Automatic annotation (TrEMBL):
Residue sites binding substrate per the record: W53, Y146, K274, G307, R386
Cofactor(s) essential for the protein: pyridoxal 5'-phosphate
EC nos: 2.6.1.62
Keyword annotations from UniProtKB, A to Z: Aminotransferase, Biotin biosynthesis, Cytoplasm, Pyridoxal phosphate, S-adenosyl-L-methionine, Transferase
Signal peptide boundaries: none
Residues reported in the UniProt entry to bind pyridoxal 5'-phosphate: G113, S114, D245, P308, T309
Protein name, UniProt field: Adenosylmethionine-8-amino-7-oxononanoate aminotransferase
Subunit and partners: Homodimer.
Modified residues (N6-(pyridoxal phosphate)lysine): K274
Organism of origin: Saccharopolyspora halophila
Domain of life: Bacteria
Functional summary from the UniProt entry: Catalyzes the transfer of the alpha-amino group from S-adenosyl-L-methionine (SAM) to 7-keto-8-aminopelargonic acid (KAPA) to form 7,8-diaminopelargonic acid (DAPA). It is the only aminotransferase known to utilize SAM as an amino donor.
Tagged with keyword Metal-binding: no
Length: 419
């Protein structure tokens, strides 16, 4: 076999996310990346409106992050985390405890966002066992959510309109409340129904899992911060472990460092990923309170039953620490605010709905997007986008210039017209 024609080999042998292997969607060859741009073979440099699925917040080939990787690889690339530790993991844990909402000072370093959610769900289940409530095995969540593609994660994703509905007959059956409303004026009525649902199922529930402030892959749908306080109150009232999935929303994306801050609440468990390493390497973390850690230790196993081979990978930890330092030492809020101002141009697009929150912009069409046509139209305007369902959206790198953001908006407008 030869890879002289990489796209042909790719088409025959490589699976891509959410695509068929027998009738694969077109792929494009990326030959380089720098700053806010990726270079696509036959097209040239284009603004990456996706920030590599929302992770490359500092853009590509950032000298500080490059140096962090070089320095670490000269020491060691990896060592098992069972029975051993190392400074990159310790330093990353210290930074995470410092920047996350109050009370989250126990840190589990996972491989990916989905794994961090799996770990969070295990934490909640083991906490309830340790508390003498082994019958609490289900999770409360809301419709419209997305929490990853591994098995238990799929069970708390939207059961009907989500990507995993085909598995509904084999997944654990969770408890779904209505989507949080869009408007503050509707929060009280929604909260009443959510509280009633939680009360009716409380003796079965181990935890409450939600994406705070913004439902991401479930539809790029923001909701009022007041709902976060409802989640906290419901969890407290019924002894549930409150899990915030901030894999997409963390590290400034929605306008606060973590979306939880918008509601002035802290969860019992927090999951972070994606932007954690600035898009360089796969890494996630699940943080919890001392109370959850103690309760978990009181369970029959006495330990958290999870341990990935590449847990705490030194390369990933080193670049994650450098990424967090970059963020906290710059005026990230001003950068996100500047991008937000530029994305307001999306409201000029004729569409069913337009939503802008922090450095997130989404245009909802009244029909499914023709992804191929929409992608071609965006590329013709110098921007890479990845539409899905009836949405054309962007979560760009924070290093995007005003001109880059204008290019993204033009690309989205062209994609909306073509798709």
């Amino acid at each position: 076999m030869s890879t002289a024609d990489p796209l042909a080999f790719d088409r025959e042998h490589l699976w891509h996310p959410y695509t068929s292997m027998t009738d694969p969607a077109p792929t494009r060859l990326v030959t380089g990346a720098s700053g806010s741009r990726i270079t696509i073979d036959g097209v040239g440099p284009v603004v990456d409106g996706m920030a590599s699925w929302w992770s490359a917040i500092h853009g590509y080939r950032h000298p500080v992050l490059d140096d962090a990787l070089r320095d670490q690889v000269e020491n060691m690339a990896h060592v098992m985390f069972g029975g051993l530790t190392h400074r990159p993991a310790v330093e990353l844990a210290r930074r995470l405890v410092e920047v996350t909402p109050e009370g989250l000072d126990r840190v589990f370093l996972a491989d990916s966002g989905s794994v961090s959610i799996e770990v969070a769900m295990k934490m909640a289940l083991q906490y309830q066992r340790g508390a003498g409530r082994p019958g609490r095995t289900r999770f409360l969540t809301v419709r419209g959510g997305y929490h990853g593609d591994t098995f238990d994660c799929m069970s708390v994703c939207d059961p009907a309109g989500g990507m995993h509905s085909m598995w509904s007959d084999v997944l654990p059956q969770q408890v779904f409340g209505e989507r949080p409303p869009r408007e503050k004026s509707e929060v009280a009525a929604w909260a009443e129904g959510f509280r009633e649902l939680a009360a009716s199922q409380a003796d079965q529930l181990a935890g409450l899992v939600v994406e705070p402030l913004l439902q991401g892959a479930g539809g790029m749908r923001p909701y009022p911060a007041e709902c976060l306080r409802v989640f906290r109150e419901v969890a407290d009232e019924h002894g549930l472990v409150l899990v915030f999935d901030e894999i997409a929303t963390g590290f400034g994306r929605t306008g606060t460092f973590f979306a939880a801050e918008a509601g002035g609440v802290s969860p019992d468990v927090l999951c972070v990923g994606k932007a954690l390493t600035g898009g360089y390497l796969t890494l996630a973390a699940t943080l919890c309170t001392p109370e959850v850690a103690r309760g978990l230790s009181d369970s029959d196993s006495g330990v958290l039953m999870h341990g990935p081979t590449f847990m705490g990978n030194p390369l990933a930890c080193a670049v994650a620490s450098a990424s967090i330092d970059l963020l906290v030492n710059c005026d990230w809020a001003a950068e996100v605010g500047r991008i937000n101002s530029g994305l307001q141009a999306l409201h000029d697009i004729d569409a069913a709905d337009v939503r802008v929150l922090g450095a997130v912009g989404a245009v909802e069409l009244d029909h499914p997007v023709d992804a191929a046509k929409a992608t071609e139209a965006a590329l013709a305007h110098g921007v890479w986008l990845r539409p899905f369902r009836n949405l054309i959206y962007t979560m760009p790198p924070y290093v995007c210039s005003d001109a880059d953001v204008a290019t993204i908006c033009a690309g989205i407008a062209a994609a909306a017209e073509a798709g």
